[in-house]
Amino acid sequence: MKDRIIVGISGASGAAMAVGLLRQLRNHESVETHLMPMVLSFYNHPDSLDACMKHIIGKILDQFDIEGEAFSRWEGA
Question: What is the C-alpha separation between 8 and 47, in angstroms, rounded?
Fold first, then answer.
């Protein structure tokens, strides 16, 4: 089983740092690495900052197959 690393990125500087990290990790066959943009999505119609935070946390937990409190995947076209 591979270890899973989720790299949350935000903005151009975050992307540049994530690319450097991925370059270092690509030679490790036992590591599965994913990039995850830390951006809000509004298909869930958040009504507060707390709802936005729960959604982001739910997206992170979803990467580990853990069901989040206030997160559901987008099932659009």
Answer: 23
